[in-house]
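Subject: Sanity check before I submit

Could someone independently write out the structure tokens for this chain? I want to compare against mine line by line before I put it in a report. The sequence has 350 residues.
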Amino acid sequence: MNKIKPILFAVFLLVFDSGCGRKGQLLEPVPKIPQPVRDFRVIQKGDSLIFNWTNPSSYLNGDTLNLSLVEIEGLEVKDKEPSEGQLIKFFNKYSRPVTEMNIGWLDLGKEKAILKLDLRSSIGKNYLFGLKARGKRGGWSEVSNLVEVKPQLLPLPPQKLQAELFEDRIVLSWEAPIYCLDLQTVPKKLWFNVYRSQSGDFKRLNSSPLSELRFEDRSFSFGLNYQYLVTALIGEVGAEGAGESEDSEVLQITPVDIFPPKAPSEVKFMVSEQEVSLSWLPNQEADLAGYRVYRLKEGEEREELLTPELLTVPVFLDREVEKNCFYVYSIKAVDIHGNEGPSAIIQVKT
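---
Independent answer below. Compare away.
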């Protein structure tokens, strides 16, 4: 019996040692990596490169990201680019922060950055740019989509932007720049973009670059305030990364409707014993408010307004007439801005 006790005690120690207190292999913590940026964009505006993107809002594991840093990196592509499959690897190996590339001065903001170029050292060279993001915890994200840019010697902005108002359009015109940014080179051929704003954000009006020094804006409304500007391009381009000049001076205009409706047409009348009935074709102006009818009786010097309130239909019945009299009726169309058009005149004998 005494021999059995040591055996049981040894088994107990073996079980206790294998099931309690022994720790497994320690695992490395998973680093918190932000989602990569996928909408990185670069355009040239005058002597600057403009970078835009949308910051990531989460880590790869879905946790909310508290963004700490973003870094724009780049490299000069001197020889033939690597294949598309090797491009990211090539960029990660050879790129460096833009601030270390000695091609300009970077102003980094929220989801936008401006790199003012050193034109002497950057014009005509090919660059590849990308962006990385980092949270307050963890490491850097993968590099964003890459954008290739070749800075150009762009023209100066257009000058003397002016506008002429018509009933159905605003005609903008301007003068082309004579020189490029170096104040020496004369651009051979220029195209132009026209932008308009009502609330601070300018939107391009032309669907493709313009070759003429004028543009007709037919999508305006009277009484609203508009701001216009024009930029110049050195080619008929619209691809991502294509450059355009700095903005022209902003032209502000609030179009006022001073254009009256046309005179009513095909006025007809019918006379009975004590009344005159007038009718005419309806006006087609989009801003038509109604009609006024005036009458001048034979022997009188001033015509009388018969419709203190505007008529909304092209018909009028005058029940206050005398027999054997001559009357001259004037019918005028009026728009919603109070502009009264020329008269349609008809003479009637009762």
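---
OP: Matches mine. For the report I'm noting this point. The longest helix spans residues 4-19.
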